[in-house]
Write a structure and sequence with these properties.
This protein is an alpha+beta fold. Helices cover 32% and strands 40% of the residues.
Length: 435
């Protein structure tokens, strides 16, 4: 069983799993992903990808358990050195030869170690007295926190991917849309582009209202980039903006008719009264107009303003149609269906109707990720700044003299440990002769 766990939690297995995940992620970047579509177009919801995530979770969990058990054993394990050769083989080594008995030397050394914050354990037999002292056990707890934090972060990622969702809405002022998994709607009341002194876009913001099924407002907020609206675990982010493909706010045009030549601005999809009993209506805007040659039906080739156009209809005083044609912003002189009409309408420009892009996200794994980050950060600080130090001592008495051997190890800050060890030994035997 132990061999199986060691294999499952091995670093080699983890590297192969991460390599496979990396290849899947690379394919997901190269191949456009369309959730719900089978095959390579929905890799992140495929059985193979989910299986890899589960195996990674098992590998990481096993690795953490093995590491935690090893750290606990090191925290509570007490080691004693009983042979002088073991002391002399260590990097940090001191030897004291003095008159007196071992008890006196051990008492002085124990006191010096405790004053330095060491936990001291003593072991005796007929010929010798051994000491084991250690401090910095919090560093091992830091290692445990670091591994547990990584596991918690991974758990948060799994929770986010399997239970949360991300939606994207493009809404013009006055439009609304339902919110997934919630019994409410989001409505855009206004959208603004803020310019700086140089006329460049400084920021953009949306006035957003959440309403219930009955239309009553639940919450209103002006959202900006990095300042979302949060309600019932759902985050509404200001993500982007763009021109609406099916509407404009205002149209500037030149209108010519017998006895009338004027430049005017007209709101889209409204009726404008003109002198002489004429009326003008602008409708059917397309940002990238394309007309089917067989059905004559208009449509948008894209949402970009590559070929913006709209229809204009001019009615006479008796309600008869004097002009009804497509007007193209890129070709203002085109008069379409009635080139011989006494009425001539020429487009000069338009003010686009902007839509705001809202990212709607439910991420239930965020608390796990934040907790994991806190655990890993605290664990890393404990590992980096709390050294694990161990000091071993052996007292041997023969013919009224005591030989005290002291050595130790430190996993970091070697120079400081050398000074500390010398201070401990010198403080416990200030008149000793050192060999």
């Amino acid at each position: 069983m132990n061999k199986f766990l060691q294999t499952l939690g091995s670093l080699k297995i983890m590297l192969w799993l991460f390599l496979a995940l990396g290849l899947f992620s690379l394919l997901g970047v190269i191949i456009p992903q369309q959730p719900g579509r089978a095959g390579l177009h929905d890799l992140y919801n495929s059985t193979a990808f989910i299986a890899l995530l589960v195996l990674c979770a098992l590998n990481l969990t096993t690795c953490v358990i093995i590491r935690i058990l090893a750290n606990f054993r090191q925290v509570f394990h007490k080691d004693f050195l009983g042979e002088p050769e073991a002391f002399r083989a260590m990097k940090h080594y001191r030897e004291i030869d003095k008159e007196g008995f071992a008890d006196t030397a051990v008492i002085h050394l124990t006191g010096a170690l405790k004053r330095r914050g060491y936990a001291v354990t003593e072991k005796r037999d007929e010929e010798r007295c051994m000491l084991y002292a250690s401090k910095g056990k919090l560093s091992k707890i830091g290692s445990i926190l670091l591994h547990l934090g990584a596991l918690v972060i991974f758990t948060g990622g799994l929770v986010s991917s399997r239970t949360g969702y991300t939606d994207f809405l493009m809404l013009a002022p006055g439009q609304s849309a339902s919110v997934k998994k919630r019994d409410c709607f989001v409505r855009v009341d206004d959208f603004r582009i803020v310019l700086n002194n140089e006329g460049r876009v400084k920021s953009y913001e949306s006035d957003v209202t959440l309403t219930g099924r009955d239309g009553k407002p639940l919450l209103t907020k002006t959202i900006r980039v990095n300042d979302p609206l949060i309600h019932d675990g759902i985050h509404f982010y200001q993500s982007s903006y763009g021109e609406a493909p099916d509407a404009v706010r205002l149209v500037r045009l030149q209108f010519r008719a017998p006895g009338l030549d004027t430049v005017l601005e007209a709101a889209y999809d409204s009726t404008v009264s003109l002198p002489g009993g004429l009326t003008l209506r602008l409708h059917d805007y397309y940002s990238d107009l394309s007309i089917d040659m067989q059905t004559r039906e208009p449509s948008n080739r894209s949402n970009e303003p590559n070929n913006p156009a709209l229809k204009a209809r001019v009615l006479g005083a008796k309600g008869d149609t004097l002009f009804h044609s497509w007007l193209y912003f890129n070709h203002p002189d085109f008069q379409g269906m009635r080139p011989d009409s006494p009425v001539r309408v020429t487009l000069e420009g338009y003010r686009p109707q902007y839509r705001t892009g809202l990212q709607v996200r439910e991420n239930l794994g965020v608390p796990y990720v934040l907790a994991g980050l806190l655990m890993t950060s605290l664990g890393l600080l404990m590992l980096l700044y709390i050294p694990v130090r161990r000091i071993y001592a052996l007292a041997l008495t023969a013919q009224g003299r005591t030989r005290l051997l002291v050595s130790g190890t430190s996993n970091r800050f070697e120079e400081g440990f050398t000074r500390e060890l010398n201070d401990i030994v010198d403080g416990s035997a200030p008149t000793a002769r050192f060999s």
